[in-house]
Design a protein that fits this description.
The protein is mainly α and 267 residues long. The protein has helices at 3-13, 19-48, 66-87, 90-110, 117-137, 142-165, 167-173, 178-181, 186-202, 205-208, 213-232, 239-266.
């Protein structure tokens, strides 16, 4: 989910690019994402051991020691950011390192203190779009900013349904998710719908930047379904089923949106 928006931003921003160059960029991005995920799991392994959805992760399952996991995370992060620093504009390396540090050292500890951690995590999750733009064009292009906004806004209606489904786990692990602070789920559902509306509005930006019918036709179609499922999440009588439906469709939504943008760009 980090690499796909980054790859799209790279391909949409680069005037010229070779397959080896793209492969090198994707490798650096993936290594950075793997490293950040490993460091996150190292930081949270005591909490992961208390939650049913995470107790089978490598550290709590004792498949790897915490020390080895920390070393692995640092090596992967360093290798990924190092590749981007070495072979792409300086801004790309800075953005990769910023993403790793923001995810690991800011978002991860904030989860135990404030529901606003979700927005901070969404910034970290959307930064790869800027990274792709910087690597492809040498600077952050308007399309790069557009993809950043789309991915940032998308993460709220994508994550809140997960947090609702696993609210008992999050409470047991000591995480201050919105679904833990408000046990009714009303705030999480309302925020999801508001962010979904903002997301759909933000998907108009690529049209003003030159995207044609091959983008906006499918974008409009999936937007209608996405909004319907976000609205259904607000109904407390069927919130559990609606949360699963919204989460699953959020994956389809982003995949269709970004794929349509690339297809439109190449035709």
């Amino acid at each position: 989910m980090a690499a796909f928006p980054a790859a799209c931003a790279f391909l949409l921003s680069a005037e010229e690019h070779s397959f080896p160059q793209f492969t090198l960029f994707l490798t650096g991005t993936l290594l950075s994402a793997f490293g950040a995920a490993a460091l996150n799991q190292w930081s949270e392994h005591p909490q992961d051991a208390t939650m049913s959805r995470t107790r089978d992760r490598p550290i709590p399952a004792k498949l790897i020691s915490p020390g080895c996991a920390l070393m692995l995370g640092l090596i992967l992060s360093g290798a990924g950011a190092g590749l981007l620093f070495a072979f792409f504009p300086l801004l790309a390396g800075i953005l990769a390192l910023t993403t790793i540090l923001l995810y690991w050292l800011v978002y991860t500890p904030l989860k135990r203190h404030t529901p606003w951690c979700t927005e901070v995590g969404a910034v970290a999750g959307a930064l790869p779009a800027l990274l792709g733009s910087a690597a492809g064009a040498g600077s952050i292009t308007p399309m790069g900013w557009s993809l950043f906004a789309i991915v940032f806004l998308w993460q709220m209606p994508h994550f809140h349904p997960i947090a609702w489904r696993y609210r008992t786990d999050y409470r047991q692990g000591g995480f201050r998710m919105l679904t833990v602070v408000d046990e009714t789920g009303r705030k999480a559902a309302n925020w999801s719908f508001i962010y979904a509306l903002l997301l759909v509005a933000s998907t108009a930006a690529p049209v003003f930047l030159g995207a044609g019918a091959l983008y906006w036709v499918p974008a409009t179609g999936v937007a209608a379904v996405f909004l319907q499922r976000a609205a259904a999440f607000r109904d407390f009588r069927r919130r559990d089923a609606a949360a699963c439906s919204l989460f699953r469709f959020s994956l389809i939504y982003l995949a269709v949106l970004l794929s349509a943008l690339l297809i439109d760009h190449w035709t």
